[in-house]
Amino acid sequence: MERIEEGDLIAALGTALGEAAIGIVRMSGRGAVELVDRFFQPFRKGQNLLKTPSHSMRLGYIRNEDGEVIDEVLVSVMRGPHTYTREDVVEINCHGGILPIKRVLDLLLKNGARLAEPGEFTKRAFLNGRIDLAQAEAVLDVIRARSEKGAEIALRQLSGGLSREIGGMRDELKSILAWVEAEIDFPEDVDQIPVDKLMERIDALIARVDGYIEGSRAGRIYREGLKTVLVGKPNVGKSTLLNTLLGEERALVTDIPGTTRDIIEEAINLEGIPLILMDTAGIRGKAGVVERLGIDRTRAAVEEADIVLALFDVTSELSEEDRDVLELIKDKRGVVLLNKIDLKERRLDVDLIRERLGSSYVFLEISARLGWGRKELGEAVLNVVGVSKLAPESAVLTRRRQLEVMERVRESLVGAKCGIRGGMPPECVAIDLWDAWTQLGQILGDTESEDVIDEIFREFCIGK
Prior knowledge:
Layout: E1 10-13, E2 22-28, H1 32-39, E3 40-42, E4 56-63, E5 69-78, E6 89-95, H2 98-110, E7 114-115, H3 120-127, H4 133-144, H5 148-158, H6 161-185, H7 195-224, E8 226-231, H8 238-246, E9 264-270, E10 273-279, H9 289-304, E11 307-313, H10 320-329, E12 334-339, H11 350-357, E13 361-365, H12 374-385, H13 400-421, H14 426-444, H15 450-457
Parallel strand pairs: 1-7, 8-10, 8-11, 11-12, 12-13
Antiparallel strand pairs: 1-2, 2-6, 3-4, 4-5, 5-6, 9-10
């Protein structure tokens, strides 16, 4: 991987464009301090930026080429290598209106800087060795976190938790490889490798890999959220439940069947679990043309969903519409919500529902109207997807790229075991072990292709 050329000066907005208290324009690269100093007039004489100590701020004006004041600003000077990018970094804190920060950025771009590419500041931090690729991905995960747990996982990865564990696995592989290669290079001088001990060490690595593969489900859930669909017959309480979970009147609630004819999609945080929740049209046989279109969309939403929340009214007998719902969701997994338990009447045959759906569903009694069962619903969702609550110190894989790499690592380790069992030459075993070592390096970015790295950083916004 090539390092960034010296003198390549980038600039971008560090905050969203719009009205706010503060707007930040940031620069990185050789000449950043010198460029801003050309247009900065400090309030106090002698406080030019060239003599300003690192990690200090100066108050003054930014003036254009004609000497006109663009804005009153605070300029932060941070000198490499003790910066985010390990280069000289300057941040200009402007007033947060659109015009001031745009004029300051335009001034810098006209006088030697270029507009940063998406994620280029973080990419420079990676290329200059301040963070590895797993930590760089964690930066984006922090920004996009949908829940406190998701942010916690991302921050743990950003601080190097996953990187240290992957590095430890690579060190163990190198140790095993040294053992194998010694037998290859010095077969007459080295004792034959004890097969049982070698297999034991490889098995221990496979167990760690399996733990990461299993834990990746939790990482992706907390990072991306679960696509969750609410289904049930008309007037069973879907929209009421949606409003209760959201804490606001988002969905229209009436006694008229067929009120919800389109998919209502909302992101909610349910006891720390991010859900992309879709309220759908009620399933019923006799429906008008427009309502039928809504039901067709419901069927499509169920197909795409990760889990289903299926509502049934405990005060009513199982109707033909309820049976249509059961037929629709029988091949999915989710939570059966037995609604209206605040009412005394009980007429629903719950055992029949259990029989039709099998073990793919967890059953939970709720009152959508009164909000009963919200906390238990979060626990039920975790139960359905097979994710236990993570230990505070757990490092998990949060991205599909990382999971795919770990699956390939497992294949290589299993291949090495098969080679040992089959009496293959140590050279063949070494190839599989080196493959596993190389694959692990892809998670950290040491051995990942440049195309993949570029694709990762294109996910970032400009300025980060």
